[in-house]
Amino acid sequence: MHSEHLKTVAVWLLSVAALVFLMIVLGGVTRLTESGLSMVNWHPVTGWFPPLDEAAWEQVFAQYRRSPEYHKVNAGMTTGEFKSIFWLEYLHRLLGRIIGIAFFVPMIVFAAKGWIRGSLLIKVIGLFILGGLQGVLGWYMVKSGLVDRPDVSQYRLAAHLALALVILATVLWVALGLLKPNPINAPGGASVNRRLGCGVWALLILISVTILSGAFVAGLDAGFVYNTFPLMDGEWVPDGLWDLSPSYLNIFENIITVQFDHRVLAISVLITVGIFHWWSGRVQLTASQRLSTRALLAAALVQVGLGISTLVLGVPVPLAALHQAGAVVLLAVTIWLAHELRTAGGT
Questions:
Q1: What is the pLDDT of residues 64-76, one digit of tens each?
Q2: Hey, which of 47, 153, 161, 229 has its CA 20 to 30 A from 289?
Q3: How buried is 177 (Cβ within 10 angstroms: 0-12 exposed, 13-18 middle, 19+ buried)?
């Protein structure tokens, strides 16, 4: 296959990754503004257009007025106030549809031209299927807030975010493989880089767990309490961490434990990234590998700073959205570094 064709496919995939990144951030804003339950129906094929006249607005608002959120949270809301939360959720769903088209149409064109085939075609088709499943999972999440409790399940929220991250990470990995398909060993040698690569994969697991713990913080609104740092309620280890029974439920349903765990994981990420940066500085790396290790440290520092600021300032929406964006950037940089060391190690 011509190298220019591979580059074109890679640019397309990176563009899709950028759209997925925007989708994740917009989803966070939708959650932060409590807009996600404003659309109580899902029309994946016919839902491209918003209400176009006052009669249509009254119809969708009437549907919302039958939801638990209206009765328990927004009783008495006006049509104008409803529109302010409707538009965010609508844009979130619209962007999902746009991503689907932006993926499907080029995929068909590139496959017809023979630019993607074999294992690459299988990977691309798999990504498209994952994207469709993500839409279904998103609606499954929303449905959890339309029954009794006017809030989505933190479990479904975490699953929805996890699948989004899997899609983003896989798209990035495939694109990077097209841009740099051949192993490039650094002066330090393949064995050293292989050990560093194992360290990055361990970091990737830790960062992923930390991001998912943040989903539980968001799902339980745990960021709106204990807005001090580093102490919680004046203590390093607050009371009530294990009040729920069975004890494992505390990790997922106890607001105190969920916030405490996220703090510990976030600081663990920063410390581990710092150790990894020091370790990598003791061996010879290529220029791109060195750049990615520095980018990882910078991303971790910024992300922890954003997290602390978001907490102590009471979760302002712009700052909280930046914090979620920073988490995705940190994950993406880790994927980049893992790929750099994979090529260096030839694994």
A1: 998 999 988 888 8
A2: 161
A3: middle
